[in-house]
Amino acid sequence: MAPMAMIGASNHFEVAIATATMLFGLSSAAALATVVGVLIEVPVMLMLVKICLHLSKKNEMKPQSC
Most buried among 15, 30, 64, 65, by the most CB within 10 A? Predict the structure, then answer.
């Protein structure tokens, strides 16, 4: 569930880059921030997926009390 939410939140970053470039120009800080934001987002998403998988495995190992 968590990976689906992260993927859904990051859709259409290509459109964001194109829009920032067209509105503010190729050498603007807004276009640079949009590109750098995407480059930072991917490793952070992968790290969050790894954490979610680790936590799900950890929760499966716990004995269930009746």
Answer: 30
